[in-house]
Amino acid sequence: xxxxxxxxxxxxxxxxxxxxxxxxxxxxxxxxxxxxxxxxxxxxxxxxxxxxxxxxxxxxxxxxxxxxxxxxxxxxxxxxxxxxxxxxxxxxxxxxxxxxxxxxxxxxxxxxxxxxxxxxxxxxxxxxxxxxxxxxxxxxxxxxxxxxxxxxxxxxxxxxxxxxxxxxxxxxxxxxxxxxxxxxxxxxxxxxxxxxxxxxxxxxxxxxxxxxxxxxxxxxxxxxxxxxxxxxxxxxxxxxxxxxxxxxxxxxxxxxxxxxxxxxxxxxxxxxxxxxxxxxxxxxxxxxxxxxxxxxxxxxxxxxxxxxxxxxxxxxxxxxxxxxxxxxxxxxxxxxxxxxxxxxxxxxxxxxxxxxxxxxxxxxxxxxxxxxxxxxxxxxxxxxxxxxxxxxxxxxxxxx
Length: 400
What we know:
Number of helices: 11
Mean pLDDT: 90
Distance between the termini: 39 Å
Low-confidence stretches: none
Radius of gyration: 21 Å
Order of helices and strands: HEHEHEHEHEHEHEHEEEEHEEEHEH
Largest sheet: 6 strands, parallel
Structural class: alpha/beta
């Protein structure tokens, strides 16, 4: 399966939108102006899931690396790197590197190895790009061999120009907790330029995107009528799975996903299962292969998580909302419960006392996880809710 089908990589015949082209040129100009900056100059590109941020970042980096080989370019022989704190996305970038003459696999890596290597060599890069910057660690993390206080601060110290792509609605761990205000605090004293991508390119129906946003904020609205998008609510997990498999056979790239509300161990050899009514399927396993999880045919019989699907496109997504997402009929509100969330490592208490309300931050992470999953499908979304009250409410809205 071609990566252009499931990722931000554009087919050769595809074109950037006018806004994406504008931002691409804006970033290149910003980088050329600040190549010799003593204090790192930072370009921040933000936008919602599916707005095409990674497309822009990949396009700019590709163009930049081309220019490093031209004697006539201001970027000639510059030392540039692209970092991403996400295993599956890193595999995409490595595959891109293998398909061109001017991209090298060593130019793409995780932040911690980059930081440790540059510190050891006492070197400074010219331009650094960070995709999914909301995954940067904002505290020390021995498990990931990161001993400093903040990855963003460390990367800024090690480059002249930093270009980051961030979506604060995709923060999924307290150890990498970021908000707009926290980012501004760390960027204080640095030259900063910002741009936003607001057009939804994955889910192109505005009414459907608004419906998902409303659900995440706790309010269930009548299901929107979408001519080019299939939104289905299911009373059981088995028909949801059948729906996903049928679309996978016809349209390809359709998968079952779930909020992290079911027991799992990352490196366990035994399977851990997700249950949805009469459906029982194994969680996705740690992916040792070079190909991303979503592009492997056999994963049609697994349940994907944010760790395997974040940053990817699906044609049709079947989403299981687990026990942490409930509905309260008396207040007509969707409620998120951190105490029911199985991914407790994501909610571990921060070392820094920089969260005014830790419970609110935990709830925000649960909302972000649901938002990421619900916005994966380009052409269709199926939903099964484990909570009986939420399931009944969704089914009632579907009948209307």
